[in-house]
Amino acid sequence: MTALPFIKMHGLGNDFVVLDARQRALALTDRQALAIADRRTGVGCDQIITVGAPRAAGADAFMRIQNADGGEVEACGNATRCVADMLMRERGTDRAVIETVVGLLPATRASGGRIAVDMGPARLDWREIPLAEACDTLRVPIAHGSLKEPVAVSMGNPHAVFIVPDAEAAPVAEAGPVLEHHKLFPQRANIEFVQVLDRGRLRMRVWERGVGITQACGSGACAAAVAAIRRGLTERKVQVLLDGGTLELEWREDNHVVMTGPVATSFTGELPASLLDGGRAERAA
Questions:
Q1: What are phi and psi of 176, to 5 degrees?
Q2: Which of 33, 79, 238, 284 ranks highest by number of CB atoms within 10 Å?
Q3: Which residues are identified as catalytic?
Q4: Rounded to an integer, what distance in angstroms lies between the CA atom of residue 153 and that of residue 174?
Q5: CATH architecture of the domain covering 120-258
């Protein structure tokens, strides 16, 4: 395989290696994704994003998401904003529609260079999360130390949101990996630790499924907002303060969640063949 161009982008420190496969069909193996994401011997990132030709009418591109462990996942809000920004700049427009395995995500350019994305509907039924058995998703019967009864939300990917008195003191590194693999989550889960600052602001720290502690998680921020609103703790528009910065969230009356936040390009480069050949990417002729 020849060298492969990439763009390193991030949304509030949640960082991505973005690969353009619109003219060159590419399917990275788990092993290759793991090599690229390695922060010592690869480029380093939380997720690898492959942008391909759209499959559905009305979409501008298809986005494939692989976590740092190589596994493919369904949704990533910060990556969606980054890809939308890339497409808007290419086309000189203020709108883009990103296709994912869970549907079409419309994005628009907002004030201050930020990108707003309609992340789709919040899914609240236990089957949609999914959970291994029927239960009330407003208070899932899970406990770990002082943590208990998270709110379960799917934004196309599974989340368990724990409301905590102090997000800074939350045991993210200790409890995150245990809860991610809890038997009630057959597809594992992203774990959010959320403190209510007031009715318009949340402080959130996150353990991302297949990644670990990250500076930000867009779909997690959506889930946190939905969880706090369902508990009656905030209004339907909130700011979510993450380690990497602030996102604005609105859970609209039509059940769609709109997320607005900044994006940035860190640098561009080429992935050398030596980094890719060990995993043998599947490439169309």
A1: -55, -55
A2: 79
A3: 76, 217
A4: 22
A5: Roll (3.10)
Residues 236 and 251: beta-carbon distance below 8 Å: yes
The DSSP result for the chain, as a single string, is ---EEEEEEEETTEEEEEEE-SSS-EE--HHHHHHHH-TTTS---SEEEEEE---STT-SEEEEEEETTS-EES--HHHHHHHHHHHHHHHT-SEEEEEETTEEEEEEE-GGG-EEEEEEEPB-STTTTT-SS---TTS-S-EETTEE-PEEEESSSEEEEEE-S-GGGS-HHHHHHHHHT-TT-TT--EEEEEEEEETTEEEEEEEETTTEE-S--HHHHHHHHHHHHHTT-S-SEEEEEETTEEEEEEE-TTSEEEEEE--EEEEEEEE-HHHHTTT--EE--
Helices 77-91, 218-230: axis angle to 10 degrees equals 120
pLDDT in tens, 111-130: 998 999 999 999 999 999 99
pLDDT tens digit sequence for 187-214? 999 999 999 999 999 999 999 999 999 9
Query: May I ask the CATH class of domain 4-114+264-283?
Result: alpha beta
Residues comprising the chain, all counted: 285
281 pLDDT above the threshold of 80: no
Structural contact between residues 74 and 156, judged by C-beta atoms closer than 8 angstroms: yes
pTM, whole model, 2 decimals?
A: 0.92
Give span(s): CATH 3.10.310.10, the chain.
4-114+264-283, 120-258
